[in-house]
Design brief:
This protein is of the alpha+beta class. The protein is 25% helix and 25% strand. Helix 3 (126-136) runs antiparallel to helix 4 (142-160).
Amino acid sequence: MASDDITTHTRRRTRILVAKLTGVATVIAVVVVCPIFAASRLVAPAPTAPAGRPVGTAFATARVPGSGAGGDLVWTEVAGVPVPVSRTVGPRDTSAGRARGFSHDGMGAVFAAIHISLRLSPQVGPVVFEATLRQQVVGDGAPALGQQLASDYDQTRQRLGLPYGQPAGRLHARVRGWCLDAETPAQVVIRLLVEGSTQDGESVLAATVMRLRWASGDWALVAPPDGDWSRVMTAVATVDGYTPAPDPGGA
């Protein structure tokens, strides 16, 4: 198969995946993982990065906190998605539906990516996603991300027959793992792996590149280019090469 044909085929597979994720309101990159992905601009799958590979020698990557006896990891649900909470890693403040206060290390950045991106979805409602966007998202793409999020919310709530201000349903996703490059204490780059389910029950995997910036004593999420998560999201065939996320069922 010619190189151009391979690229076209890869983009088509990713476009189909994004459409499926969008159709069931799956996060990424929701956690998603993150919110809802538009399928306008897509990139070919990037090579898998080694899991847990610190780039800077002055920045420590924390271990995944343990659960059960002797551990401090517990699980809660946000918009239907199980998310980890740790006394040592964070978030330390979950008042008003928000998630703030993460440890200044690699694992704190991972947890921040999960929690902040999840709160940038129509499913949590405008009270939460507007405040999250305003206070915990940085970068040139933030205004466009806000416009897309507001549009997604209006469409979703109208489809569900909900009054403005109400959370818009539930997400159907699970964080499966991540690859983390701790470049500096000021910025961390993460590839977050999320599994979603389509309406016909098919499982799909997607990885989204997220950048976290340390600002004002906490991690902030850098908005994707033009506010478009699909530009940094790729289809993934396997969980190999990713640090596995803890199992919510084992907490």
